[in-house]
Protein 1
Amino acid sequence: VLLIVFLGAAATPSRAAPIDRTVLALYDSLHEETPAHSMLHLNAEMPLNHLGYIVRYHDVRQGLPPLSELEGVVAIATMLTYGFEDPLGYFRWLERAAERVPRVVVLGEFGGALTPPARRSLNKVLARIGLVLTDDYVTSTVTSKVVGMDRTLVGFEADVDPVPFEHPVLQRSGTSARVALEYETNLVGGPVRSIVAATGPGGGYVASGFYLHYSEAIDSKRWIIDPFEFFRRALGIERFPVPDTTTVSGRRLYFSHVDGDGWNNLTLVERYRDPPTYSSEVMLRELIEPYPDLPVSVGFVLSDGDETLGGGEKARDVARRIFALPQVEVASHTHTHPFTWGFFEHYQRAAELRLIERQQPAEARTVAARLRDFVGLGPGEKERERRRFLAGGNDLPRAYLRDAFDVDLEVGTALRGAEELAPPDKKIALYLWSGDTRPFEAAIDATRAAGVRNMNGGDTRFDAQFPSVGYVAPLSRVAGNARQIYSVNTNENNYTGLWTERFYGQRDVIETFRRTGEPMRLRGMNVYYHTYSAERLASVNALREVLDWVRRQPVIPIRASSYAAIADGFFSSRIEAVGALEWTIGDRDGLATVRFDDAEALEADVAASDGVIGSSRHNGSLYVALDQAVATARVKLRARGQPAAGDMTQASLAGSRWQVGAVRRSSCSLGFTASGYGAGEFAWEALPATAMLVTARRGGDALAEQRLVADAQGHATFRLDIDGIEPVEIEMACMGPSQ
Amino acid sequence: MVPLILTGSLAVGGIGVAVLMLPGGAEQLAMLSRDGRYESAAALGNRIHGDGEGDPEVLAQLFDLNGYTGDPARAREAIDEYLRQRPDDVAMLRHAVAFFAQQQDFAAYLEQLERLVAADGRPAEAAALAALYRTHGRFDDEKRVLVAHRRSPLPPEAAERLGRLLARDGDYAEAAETLAPVSLANGTVRPLLFEVLMKDGQHARAAEMATGWSARGIEPASHAVMVLMLAQAGEQDAAERLAATFPRNRSYDPAQLAWALTDQRRFDLVKIVVRHWLAGADRATSARAAGIFVDTAAQAGALGEMIGELQAMLTEPGTPAAKAAMAVVAVSYARWGYQAIAPLRHLLSSELLMQQPLFGASLAMREGNRLAARYFLIETDLSDADEDAADEWYSLAETVFGPLEIAADLTARLHQERLSVAVYPFVQKSALAAGMADPIFALLRAEPEAPANGAGL
């Protein structure tokens, strides 16, 4: 405790010090088309996000970043499998940039041939890590043997291969490098030692082939180094409140969302075949109505309700009935369902019409078809014209092609159209990307301008078939200056071979939930599916199995748009250190929690903080719940085990199924607002050992009342079996000494 | 009575036939499936299976039906039972592998894949099993599977991997046999193959293969390692042969080979590389090769050795060796001055100096022989002169010619198209010094058939 107090005092900033969280990632669009295609995005951004960092991408094909733009950048990172076009220019830039940016992190290639001038520049950078790049290269590793291995960093998911890759020879420069993996090889000139993984005061380095193992034969990747620990060391991370996207009110968050694809497909489930029934109807009856305690955001494809192209009134009727359910959040899944968003960034209707022509079935022009038309058995001209503008699959750029694409129609009209199908008091809050889920900047901007959140993409899976945290996507994707929030988990399409087999596959999402929850809580839980899941009994049963499993978990169910707001908050949050173990967190948007890792010896000092509801622990990390009613929260930590106040002034929420906010504490009462799905479950700590009366009210009406006594440790839990979707005012008041 | 018996017999027979014609379990399931009633088919199949039906045909259908309708636990039971009855059914084993691959049960998946590979797995399946072991750090199992299937033959990537594992474990002969076929199409394994052949004592085979590869072009760094390994193994002749084998095209830079050998203090081999490089080279290439020769000699502390080599080469004027030596002498003079070539001066006849006339002019000036310098300058070909050569030529010309002479000479060469672009600034400079009109400007205005017989020096 004394040590923590001492360290805290030593680290006391004299004034508010902003916490910089930006990592500058360099890539070349000639080799990695967009940031989302880059190795850094696909592998390293998630661990960096988890540690609280925001990755800002820069395409060197547009020129190297001006040094003046490096303000606030904590590290420059590369993860290259190729060289830049002007490596020497880059190395010289890096040499100058490293004088302004505290850290440089190199995973893989340095960025070009290691000529003497290149080495001169690189060595000035590497010296900060404690390394020096020699002119030697291990071209044959037959005699290579490991002479130094730090098991706390190496062998994370895959062991070090007995046959190492060829690599340049880096050696120690001074004593500051923390070497994680070192070899000795008998080269022609004699034995040579080479470092392939190390961190130091100026960043970190791991040679190609030593950070990640990828097998082409089974298309599988696994980290060799622990990316979390590597970045923690390479970035020299000091303690700060990490914006957390996994936890709300002390519990792991859960949400569900549906892309409306297949709304009008007739189900194959036998008990719904007579009369033929839309999949959307089956979804309503089997997957939504039976789960009033689990919210779901349903994204309607507006053209699915079109009179001529889609299901018309019948489709809209199902949408109305779904949107009317209290647990359903209204969302849009576009107007015409683009499959390939990139096609529409520089849209040309003529090009689209040509594609439509090319896709027309040859059958329409056969003699048999003409004969069928002649006797009146063919589809007829009107039907044929209708079909002409419907895509059978994603071989055309969007599903509904009758009208020219327009961003305003695709976003604004789609949002309004879906909202019109909802009860008047329900506002649409979410836009769900369709198809390849790679929208362009203007499309994302349109959703932001419409005042809704946007989400989808990412396709996180982490299970026996995808056995690596490398398959856990980062939080978002950027297109220009716009940010798209990824969904938390992938959907049934990727569990069923693109909806061709194994239609029960989505039950495996439970394995992803497990692996992204332990040992690190990397993600919340997201049950994400399409309406077409209700086409088949196998997929319906799989989803019911998953939803039933979720019901048994201690989660906090929230709306999908709330999650998107949390993720947006990760990026907007501004953190400042204001004292020893004390920070302010402003501009939080929907962010509800901050996390401190390795915090077994610490606890939140609720009384000295502002806007802190409580805290919970998970595998050594401390999750501090923030109050949305307080714009800029102040979080203060202290050594764990301080004596309790003996009253309610330090009451701390340990976990709740409902979202808690507007907390008011006094010596003998605790009031707060809560809303959520299912029964309200609350666990509070640091309560006085007195009897308390818990009262729940809405608009002055008492909804429930119960007596409560905290245990000797000041813990108390209670449950409210009332509807909490609309906010409830809850008061816990002392009744006198407990009996 | 007979009709009664006959009728009775027919009735019994008919009932018997009818019973025989009743569809069996497998047929019933097939019929329901054909009608798209998979759920009913699965329910029926599970019921008759529960009643003791263990026909493999039914089990196979049950596996499909339960998978299709979303009951993988029953599908698993069905395929497990099927494979207990028919453990060597490769097609069903393949189904089992695909099924278990997606059941979040890695151990079961691995077991089925092992069974399949052991039964009659395709090479690609063995490679997949090995890759799976590798990904999970079970390198001994990986090697075991690859070794067991090394004659299959394995896919190239798997064979290469096996070769590397064998080499790592010191089984060089097997490694060489495994890698040799791969090396035909995959150049990246050649250095490894060479190394394991050398370690296995197959020096001649290694040298022969390496010479073949290097004739078509290999990475200079790998080339150097092969040369050095041969030399270290006492195969000096083979090393020298290999050092002198490389393609003469832009894709291969012998300088890298020379420097790599220099790094290992093998100037004896550098000399062979450069000599081969110089032979038959054009002037620009000769200059570069000579420069590398001089620089590597200096780096290796072998300038004396280089001089000795040059002395030997210069003794036979008119030979390619003497011509190559002159390129080196010229570079040495340019780098370090007269001192560097003093021991060779007595060998540098006018005939030899004509091989490098600009050097000849410079040397003549150094020795105060203006007449000879004038001669060598006139003989210097400026049609491919670079900036340095143009500058040197002009500087020397200014000391032995008058401004008008220089301008006239350069203008004549210009019209005869015997000047490189690098000399153009000096044409203009000389014209200005001589008070003449700018010949470049004049040429640009002139007709294509501009006079080609201007006065020379």
Protein 2
Amino acid sequence: MPVEPLARRKTPALRGAANAVTVVLAVASFSLLACGRGGGGTGGSDLDFSSTLAPAAATVGPATLTVRLREAGRAVTGAAVRLEAHMSHPGMAPVMADATERTPGVYDISFHFTMQGDWVLLVSAALPNGRRVERRVDIPGVRPGGVR
Amino acid sequence: MRADLLQWPILGTYLRWRHFRTTNQIVLLVVAFAIVLHGLLGPDLAPKNLATVLTWVHYRGLLIGVLLIAANAFCSACPMILVRDLARRAHKPVRRWPRWLGRKWVAVVLFAVVLFAYELFDLWALPAATAWVVIGYFGAALLVDLTFKGATFCTHVCPVGQFNFVASTLSPLELRARDRDVCRTCATVDCIRGRRSLGSDPAHPVSSKRESRRGVRPQRGCELALFMPVKTGNLDCTFCLDCVQACPHDNVALGFRVPGDELTDDRRRSSIGRLSRRPDLAALSLVFTFGALLNGFAMTGPADAVESAIAGALGASSEAVPLGLMFILALIVAPLAFCALAALATHQLTTSDLTVREIGIRFAYALVPLGAGVWLAHYAFHFLTGVGTIVPVTQSAMLDASGRAWLGEPNWAWLGMRGGIVFPFEIGAVLLGALGSCVLAYKIAEREYPRVAERAAIPWLVLVAGLLAFALWMIALPMEMRGTALGG
């Protein structure tokens, strides 16, 4: 028959621990909730962003993401476009790549899918006028190399 | 003289410090708080969120590693118990866990449900869902432990706790009585009973130098009803060290032992009884082992193909149906079938009076090392290949929270070891686990069938070999990181 443990009385040490926990949590809450979130996606409504992936049925191995940028009907030239490719699973190696401008407003980003599974491509573009644009492109189900 | 970590300089002093546990709990509580906040308010991309990175990469990797090295250190530092202790100041539970719910069956089912939910909802890819899991876990612990007395949540409910209990049987450390003769002469049994302060507890006079030195303060005894003189091994031990604090004779040691040996020990142990009479613990061991294989297999292409095939055959539109069937096959049908076949073979090869069921329960514990090896291989892969990602994710979280890069701009070049380097470690972990399972199977056979141990063990060695082959094939497969969060 198990014997019930005795109840503890409040001790100064435990009160101190409880107070410490309260203070730590309150400070953490305030700092995280009070402050606005920086970064994140930005982009104007007049910016036309489109992308295509080649090969269309993504497989492990080389791939090219082509990004087209147009603003107010005109091709955006001279933008610094960068790719940050993550797997949906945390802890996996992301792939970083910079784009080259093939024709005015058309940017090619060559990179490698290093593992099969689901990928998220984060494309950021720093426009010549100082604006910064971020878009997310989901690529589910990247297959093993050679499998289509 | 056997080694006792509690007597070691610095480490022993820290372990015996009365605020040792609270300090560690506060640290993990702050981590849990960060996980919840960033999970709910941070980016919804799993690799960039503290909730998913800390929970599914770092916590899991550290958990299995620490369990196998330093026993149940994570249960010791469980922040839910800290919150529960604070809540119990306002509300003291009076009920006992109902007998009809059994001792571990609820936890066994919940353990399987957690594994199923993880796969079904792709929790690793969902920061907000991960945060809600943490919140739900705290809520469940509070609900259970504010309803029932003692460490009911730890003993009967907590799925992670059951995982920890089973894995910690393979740790080289255990808490035990230093000198059982001292326990025989102890009149107060504070290790389990606890004590009130001096003066309010007539049964407890100051009886040792330690008490004279420190004074007698209120101290909780073991909440899991593990009575030190007859405590064996780490099952159900949360390493809270309440017994260390409570013992007035300084007679509790944190000593070394042979990892896994307790699984072959069928003596009656405090609060648990004999392992051979605990089908719930045997079932827990099987779910632990086959769950490891299923959890790893689910991340491979063939698992996807099997699931699709089942869905096609059943015409199921929801993933829950084929996945549920896979879980039933892997966690119920396969373990029962394999163990029944092995037990039947042992029954045929020996002249034992034991029934097939009794043989199965006795030998099921032998599979635990193999299961631990697979868990270690799987979680170590994620941890070792992604350990550095905590740096840019923390940098990113700080940027999210404050709008300034106080810790520098996120540097996504922080990763970990390359998968190819980790691969030999994975193979080694699984092989070592299989070797441990073979040794345990033989030792159990030797215990039950001293004259024909080799014959009795053969079916179980064959089973271990089969499971090992599956585990090695699975590890050699390319891992596939899936996540429905993409919705693609």
